[in-house]
Amino acid sequence: MVKVGGQNIPWYEKMTVADLLNDINDPYNYVVVRINNKYISRPDFKKTLVPNNCQVFLIPMISGG
Amino acid sequence: MTELKMTEVKTIRYKKPDIVKGYANQTLHINISDAAVSIKPVTKKMKEVFIGGKGFDLWLLWNAVKPDTKWNSPENEICIASGPLGGTPVYPGSGKSIVTTISPTTGSVIDSNVGGYFGPYLKFAGFDALEVQGKASGNVVIFIDGIDEKIQGLETTGLPGNSYETSAVLTKHFGGEKPRTISVVSTGTGAKHTLIGCLNFSWYDSKRKQTRYKQAGRGGIGTVFADKGIKAVVVRWDTVTVNTNNPAEKEALKEVARMHSREIVELDPKQNEMAKIGTTHLVTIMNDHDLLPTNNFKYGRHPEASNLGQEVYRLIFDKGFDGCWMGCTVACSHGVRNFVPLTGPSSGRKVFVDGPEYETIAGCGSNLGIFDPHFVIEMNFYCDTYGLDTISVGTGIAFAMECFETGIINETHTGGLDISFGNRLTALTLVHQMAEGKGFGQVVGQGIRKMKEIFNKEYGADKAVMEDIGMESKGLEFSEYMTKESLAQQGGYGLALKGPQHDEAWLIFLDMVHNFMPTFEKKAEALHWFPMFRTWFSLCGLCKLPWNDIIPEDNKDTPEPAKVMKHVKWYADYFAAVTGRHTDPDDIILMSEAVYNFQRIFNLKMGFGRRSHDKIPYRAVGPVTEDEYESRIKRYDKQLVEQHKVDISGRSTKEKVAILRKLREKQYNKLTDAVYRRRGWTSNGIPSVETVKRLGIDFPEVLDLIESHEG
Predict the structure, then answer these.
(1) CATH code assigned to A2-59
(2) Which pTM was predicted?
(3) Which residues of A touch B537 (CB under 8 A)?
């Protein structure tokens, strides 16, 4: 299972961040997500695997400076 | 160490006024040339038009200086103010001070928004703003005592040269058993010997039992302070509660403060964890998006960037509450305990370092081609305690390093120093030289604009190349974001009032990732409202972070997600609850617009503020060099072919660089036109008569200035 917000999402082999966002049907353009304490940026969503039993935070980042 | 001695020059007694709806309704003027002290009333008109904070500072400074006033003229002032909401302990981010002066590097008005307890304590001691004018013989301490209701000018001997120790000594001296009642503004020897000095604003961290610091960094305010012969300004105040501002509607204030505060407590751990890692998360995010300045903004990423990221600093930061104002739940002001510098006067001694934040990491780390987290902490420590702005130091050294690597300057100019990218030791040597006022460090400490003049006149360097790669505009060094791929952020920097600092407009993600502004008109619209919201925080004595760095979970489903309107509504309610002035979200824009346009006209008064002053170096717009182009060749080729319909077959890289440059510079000019139109400015970037009348800033001197530039 992967915990996203208050939801538990079934995990599967080779699940990427992009797959996860697709599975939860959230079309928002996230700049970054956090898997436990590690930040994953949008350019890396398709190549970053989501580990089983992790917590994913969707960060609706619009500012920075 | 020499024994600390203080000799009273002058003491005046005053009657502290009651704070009414967030205002003390008077300001304090001190001329240190003759130790003259006067107290001025705050008029109804001042509050209506200028609101407070930066608005008050600008009005006071406008009335103090003439068009030919220079940064080191005696009549130049340092103005410090809180704002009507400043000093509220229950609303996150409500402890800011706003500082203005005529800058040594830009020649025009500069402003800086800084944490620490000074601004709120100043207000509660009876003054919405402080003006310090004149020049003293040196070593003056100004003490504003809101508890005993007295203002003192003191001649001192025995104070340390550096800022950290000066503030700690004065906190102990004036605070005794109650150090939390003291806030100190001070600077160090670096400010005296360069043009890029900063001010440290202190607060006392009761849990760690030590003085802590935040910096008013930009534009050399610390240099003006040192030039005036001031060692420190100290303010003393007692307990702060929600009642201290005497808000118009206390229950409404507590309710809106509770909502925002709780939201941050709930959402920050799910989002950027600023209460644990500050702004260090930005390092890897910027790197991943090719936005992390590397080697003087030439590149936007580096394989070693994660060495400077949150995963490292999370382990290094001292654990505990780190709010730079009481009760702030963002609490992002982290520090490093028991750090041991390897160089300089504190070499081998354990010190506490306040920071680093993202800007310092990028400026003094990646932009110098250095990816060592402990090196960045050492740079942070010495810049702060010497009173140097880490952004100008970083961006300035980066420029010098590129000049060195490209042969524009060489070791005969640097005093034998190898200042190529990645050289940690010489970067630190330059900082120590800045503090001592000697060597090549002193040249770098003049800032990029002056460096370009020196390199050209004294070393025969090519002016055009330096104009392209010297990352300054209006005389201010760029803060630490790459803007090549965000036209909106090029405008965010180039069309900012004081120069390229991100506190006015930060639009990179809204532009590049969210694509909220695909047209020139939409970019111009964002370059209208974003700076207005940001300006408002500095009018009120607030921090900008709670607005749009921690986002409501349902924000993306709202009609205007870019503006985070839920928070804007809370801020309007907050303003109304403290001041009693009915406030809608649209009023926030109007309040800021008046002050914003006034500041633009202030630039005009000082001989700037026109289109020619809004230029940015081409390095901020596109690739200057062939290797820079080739490092992102797919991207640039694609843009030329698909976006601009250019046939690039058979073109050399040099030719493609030239074609792309022409296209991108044209886009920046089109954006400038669109922004000026949206702001109600002429094509020369001057607010129109109609605009100043609409905003109620049509004072005779303002109209005269505009009319003298018409046609």
Answers:
(1) 3.10.20.30
(2) 0.97
(3) none
